[in-house]
Amino acid sequence: MKICRFDDNRLGVVKDDGVHDVSSLLGRLPSVTYPLPRYDLLVAGLDKLRPELEAAAAKGPPLQPKKLLAPVANPGKIVAAPVNYTKHLQEALADKGIHHGNLIGEIHKVGMFLKASSAVVGPGEGVRLIHTDRRNDHEVELAVVIGRAAKNVSPAEAMRCIAGYCIGLDMTIRGPEERSFRKSPDSYCVLGPWLVTADEIPDPNNLSIEIKVNGETRQSAHTSDLILKVGELVAWGSSFYTLHPGDVLLTGTPQGVGPVKPGDVMEATLERVGSMRVEVSAAS
């Protein structure tokens, strides 16, 4: 199943003929009071709600959304892998415009990092660049959405804790500051175009991924080249944090990262998921 959020926080099921509005089922989610839960209500209840979503999607006519939002409305945290492709590690070490004198090491040594959940937007909202006097880069990635609580799980157990997958754009300002600081401005984490449930992607470590900027291919790789595979990353993350439904794990970007500027258009594609078009502008 493919699930999207669109327009004014509507919920849709994506089929070949378009998006089917199933927003009426949002009322089936549990009501909450303060303090709010540390997880995304829709993702946490997805397994139970899925039969109703499928039935509702079969009834209504398809529509074409005006704007796609991030498929996860309330990710508690974004856990990101910094250098999880060997060729990207090599280009980062070779290009001062990428590393700026920062210590760059393989993922086994440097670990993962957190990216602010306030950075999350959908493809229809676009990226709004800040500090445009500096280099702002695209980094396309496979994004993993956690579906159930995970703490100290094994790689095999980790795969059973995944709700689904989407495309992630880990936008980055180059410079000497700490990594999370440069990667967490508003709109610097694009998720989309929708969430594809895990049953539709039996092997996330076997997908092609690419991004084009203004029609020019910049990054083109395959998740089979991941240094740490999906199950290993989720397991490792769970050894440091409790992962909750709706948490997102960015698995790392391949070689070919490069700058974008206001007016550019990015088109990211992930096999078995789809494509998303993202416009770049300057923050007002």
Describe the model.
With 284 residues, this protein is an alpha+beta fold. The protein has two domains: 2-68, no CATH class; 78-282, Alpha-Beta Complex (Fumarylacetoacetate hydrolase, domain 2), CATH 3.90.850. Helices cover 18% and strands 32% of the residues. It is built from eight helices and 19 strands. A hairpin with a 2-residue loop joins strand 2 and strand 3. The mean pLDDT is 94.
Highlighted features:
284 residues, alpha+beta, Fumarylacetoacetate hydrolase, domain 2, 2 domains, eleven-stranded mixed beta sheet, five-stranded mixed beta sheet, 8 helices
| Total number of distinct structural domains | 2
Shape: globular
**What is the correct CATH architecture of the largest domain?**
Alpha-Beta Complex
Contiguous helical run count: 8
Largest sheet: 11 strands, mixed
Low-confidence stretches: none
Order of helices and strands: EEEHHEEHHHEEEEEHEEHEEEHEEEE
Query: Structural class, from secondary structure content?
Result: alpha+beta
Summarize the structure.
With 284 residues, this protein is α+β, with helices and mostly antiparallel strands. The chain is built from 8 helices and 19 strands.
Strands, helices and their partners?
Blueprint (H helix, E strand, L loop, with lengths): L1 E5 L3 E6 L2 E4 L19 H4 L1 H12 L10 E2 L8 E3 L5 H9 L1 H4 L7 H4 L2 E3 L4 E2 L5 E3 L6 E3 L1 E7 L8 H5 L2 E9 L1 E2 L5 H4 L6 E9 L10 E6 L2 E7 L7 H9 L9 E3 L7 E2 L5 E6 L3 E9 L2
Parallel strand pairs: 5-16, 7-13, 8-19
Antiparallel strand pairs: 1-2, 1-4, 1-13, 2-3, 5-6, 9-12, 9-17, 10-11, 10-16, 11-13, 14-15, 14-18, 18-19
